[in-house]
Design a protein that fits this description.
β6 (112-121) and β7 form a beta hairpin. This protein is of the alpha/beta class. Mean pLDDT is 90; it is low at 265-271. The protein contains ten helices and nine strands. The protein starts with a strand and ends in an 18-residue tail after the last helix. Helix content is 38%, strand content 20%. It has helices at 14-25, 45-49, 67-77, 96-106, 140-145, 158-164, 175-184, 207-210, 214-226, 233-256, and strands at 4-10, 33-39, 57-61, 82-85, 90-92, 112-121, 124-126, 154-157, 190-201. Strands 1, 2, 3, 4, 5, 6, 7, 8 and 9 form a nine-stranded mixed β-sheet that branches.
Length: 274
């Protein structure tokens, strides 16, 4: 069976990153390596992660460069043909990696698959809305509306990232929306219909809660994929339609905020975090 590298980016989440690491160590399929990328934390993350020094490769940015840069650092340092990402505020159930490794063994043509998730908010399980329901296969058009792939739930072939590129470090938020558009316009994204990831919402350090005007970056991502010359005619028409809608609603948000300043701009697409 092919080996898999696990990449965990973190920033000022000393307690939760240890929980994430532990969830990888408890996997029934052991990864070839676990790479933790500390994106300039100032909360004692180094000291907390030191307890895993024999099992974890610890890399550190001297300053906070953003989650895209942290993920990319880990991906570049990894060696396996398969890559699994885990955000430091999420954690996996024990069979997550094994289920995805079995999937790739049975479907060698696949380049990306994700699992279902359990959403938690303040200790209680919450049900995702219908619009957040994960889809399988050709998901490009529904992904234009909102991000339907969770980094913590996905496993990718390294060859896919060689083809489409890594996370765009110019995106402070919506970097996953940008990546999954670039993936899904070219390849199907498969789904294991089993909840094997636990995502916790309602915390203040989530990027989607701390950054206004998210639709500005979604607009940027759509423009980027539209100019990549890889879209089919049908994909280009769908992208143009969604771009028009997002621009209109984002512009209305800017006007309603007063003085033409950037509004929240989250009307058209909620983030995946619960």
């Amino acid at each position: 069976m092919s080996t898999v590298s696990v990449v965990i980016p973190t920033y000022n989440r000393a307690r939760r990153v240890c929980r994430a690491i532990a969830s990888v160590l408890y996997q029934t399929h052991h990864p070839a390596e676990i790479i933790v990328v500390d994106d300039g934390s100032r909360d004692g993350t180094l000291q907390r992660v030191a307890q895993f020094s024999r099992q974890v490769q610890y890399l550190r940015h001297p300053s906070n460069l953003g989650v895209s840069a942290a993920r990319n650092t880990g991906i570049r340092a990894s060696v396996s043909p398969l890559i699994a990402l885990l955000d430091s505020d999420d954690y996996w159930l024990p069979n997550k990696l094994a289920a995805q490794m079995r999937f790739f063994a049975v479907h060698p043509e696949a380049v990306a698959c994700q699992t279902q998730e359990i959403w938690m908010r303040r200790g209680a399980r919450v049900n995702p809305k219908a619009k957040h329901r994960k889809l399988a296969g050709d998901i490009f058009e529904p992904s234009l509306k909102r991000c339907l792939v969770s980094p913590s739930a996905v496993m990718l072939k390294r060859s896919l990232l060689d083809e489409i590129g890594l996370f765009d470090e110019s995106f402070p938020v919506c970097e996953d929306y940008d990546l999954w558009l670039r993936v899904s316009c070219r390849h199907p994204v498969h789904l294991i219909d089993e909840a094997l990831v636990v995502k916790e919402g309602g915390v203040l350090d989530q990027l989607s809660r701390s950054r206004p005007g998210l639709d500005r970056f979604r607009i940027q991502a759509i423009l980027k994929v539209m100019t990549s010359s890889v879209l089919t005619k049908e994909q280009a028409m769908a992208a143009l339609q969604e771009l028009s809608m997002k621009c209109r609603i984002y512009g209305q948000g800017c006007l309603s905020s007063g003085g033409g300043k950037e509004g929240k701009g989250n009307t058209t697409s909620d983030c995946r975090a619960p």
